[in-house]
Amino acid sequence: MRNYxxxxxxxxxxxxxxxxxxxxxxxxxxxxxGAKINKVDETMGLxxxxxxIKGEKRGYYVVVEVTSDSKAxxxxxxxxxIDSLVxxxxxVISHE
Length: 96
Prior knowledge:
The chain is α+β, with helices and mostly antiparallel strands. The chain is 29% helix and 51% strand.
């Protein structure tokens, strides 16, 4: 088991309820595949993007710290690529 940090950007036009539902759905993908979520950080929140992504100029940033094997993060990456509400994501190994 390794520690991972996952950052993803959601569409800015989601209302609070839709955004929280999407975050819960994405967290469930990780948990269903054996990951333990250590922290969900939304402090970056809504920001202007450096460049347009899928026609969007703003995005809502979420950072999730998890402990898992690569199976959970691989499945997460596979599913967010086809999720229309996620503009971009990255998964990195955390060395904390």
